[in-house]
Amino acid sequence: MAARKTSKASAKTGAKKKARVDSVDVLIAGGGYVGLTLALAIKVGAPDLQVMVVDLREPSQADKDGRASAIASAARTMFTTLGAWEGMDAQAEPITEMIITDSETRDPVRPVFLTFDGATSEGEPFAHMVPNGAMTASLRSRALAEGVVLEAPQTVDDFTTQPGHMDVRLGDGQTVRSRLLVACDGIRSRLRDLAGIETVGWMYGQSGIVCTVAHEKPHNGVAYEHFLPAGPFATLPLPNNRSSIVWTEKTAVAQTLVDGDEFTFMLELERRFGPVFGDLTLDSRRVAYPLGLKLVRSFIAPRLALAGDAAHGIHPIAGQGLNLGLKDVAALAESVVDAARLGLDIGSPDVLERYQRWRRFDTAQMGVVTDVLNRLFSNDMVPVRALRSFGLGVVDRLAPLKRYFIDEAAGVAKDRPRLMSGDAI
Fold first, then answer.
1. 420: which DSSP letter?
2. For residue range 179-195, what is the model confidence (pLDDT) as tens digits?
3. Residue 237 contacts residue 222 (beta carbons within 8 Å)
4. pTM of the complete model
5. What are phi and psi of 103, to 5 degrees?
6. 3-state secondary structure 57-118
7. Cβ atoms of 146 and 40 closer than 8 Å
8. What digits encode the pLDDT tens for the residues 338-359?
């Protein structure tokens, strides 16, 4: 492939001088949970490979992320296999049960249409809630212990594809040679755009309000998802009588709630929360994120792979966004490590195509499922409400179908990468 021209580098002023690495096997742009897990998985599976992570944020900044995420059973198994779960376990809360209701905000009673027992097997919850800061801190500690090189705060500004490698230009002007570049730089991925990879999708006109709430009464590990006309309102259990809130509203309403006074916000929150947990107290800042569907037309380009939100953004209605990214990690790490052990070029088209085949269908399928669910449940049409309530009731009465949905949510379906089955690569 012909080399793509890059703009002239301009070094950042005032940067601290230190010994620099100018050649690696894998360079990962993005030091969130996807980028760090990938770096750790590759390094554990193939210790001789040199792996670098470049992250825009200082580590201390990343560890202050006040949000929490649902970690599916298969992802927790991968973290355990990589030795990272121990650093998260103390702050994790198992989800023991999932209760789904369908109602209007003003309804005094919310009938339960569907319940899921929170176990995939004896003693194994289908998911845990884990604070994002604890997750990234544990993953970073393990990655550094295995010899991963971390450059932060730092950016990847550009890259040029050469025969046999990439020349990757960092924000301070340094060029690092790498056999494989992985974009884990989020939904607005700069590297995806530089590579010319197109996306398909649309915005929903909704935003997800995320915050943490402390409450008077215990949640007992139960997660609730209330389907309301504006979108789902989920309460997800955290340690110490706290819950993580994922609250879908029309974008204008969500922004008004986030920007407005705390009294009004808490009043609206309590209307949706209901009386089950007693008095509520806001325990974090309020943040609203626009929601949409975005899928890439290709997971790969010459010597480049996309993973996590850089490859897909879906509605949080099924709580699978992060877990899709961790499936990317397990599949890409296995493809790279297997190639390295066979003495193959880890950035070759064949290796990257194996990763793409593994992840493309699953990602597209989950994108379609979440899109349909959001359109089905985020409205107040009487015939649609009757149909979806009937459907939820049918699922609740069919044990094999419920088991299928639990296994899918937990990530324990067939054709899992080895790390998600508890096996080393």
1. G
2. 999 999 999 999 999 99
3. yes
4. 0.88
5. -160, 180
6. CCHHHHCCCCCEEEEEHHHHHHHHHCCCCHHHHCCCEECCEEEEEECCCCCCCCCEEEEEEC
7. yes
8. 999 999 999 999 999 999 999 9
